[in-house]
Amino acid sequence: MSLLFRNCREVTELVLAGEDRRLGLVERLAVRAHLRICAACPKFVRQVALMHQALPRWRAYRDGGG
Amino acid sequence: MNDFAQAVQVLRPQLLRFAHAQLRNEAWAEDAVSDTVLAALAKPQAFAGQSQLKTWLVGILKHKLIDQIRRHSREVSATTPEDDENIDDLLFDETGHWRDKPAEWGDPEAACGRREFFEVLEVCVGQLPGVQGRVFMMREWLELDSGEICKELGITATNLWVLLHRARLRLQTCLQERWFGNALARANAR
Lengths: 66, 190
Description:
heterodimer, A: 66 residues, mainly alpha, 73% helix, elongated, B: 12 helices
């Protein structure tokens, strides 16, 4: 595994890890570099972003209204 | 039974459903809910009507669930073969490329504005393997941080991250199948 050039599998792992821990500088640079040249992973990143927005609202829906 | 006690009892099935979703064990869920109801009935004056009764009870339940998790931590964190299954191998080929490229999910508001979306999300969370489901709920519903979850379950951070990684991937796959992949069917049904 190269430090800066990661494949899609490795990048999705880092993107998801970012939900539960703070990524290091090299990890963030590697993600950014990959997203610039990949057509598929930016869509995955947007899925993760949607989940990130949806989960607090799911919590509110459960605990209050639902 | 007074009105307050009756109102609490009415919410019991819902509390039990939440407790079971978190613990994945009937007996522990039953204990957590009983403890919650007892605590609520012992101190009705603590509920000053400042929030919804359900919200207040869920707040108590969350503490009782953490008590149960602590009490049964070894069983709570005992992985099943399904937990250990590597979902990445299904999604990526040997060279680490996507087998099927991820789909565009569109505007978050379009999904988050629909209660059906949250019901589907709930179903998908319920389908997670045991330990993945428990740690995911601890993180996203009980709102514990990684350090707290590791401490309660006696697992390493690396272990936890693998479980959460798999849970999140499974959830996204499930939502793709049950919600986003069916946008057309849903639009036609309306």
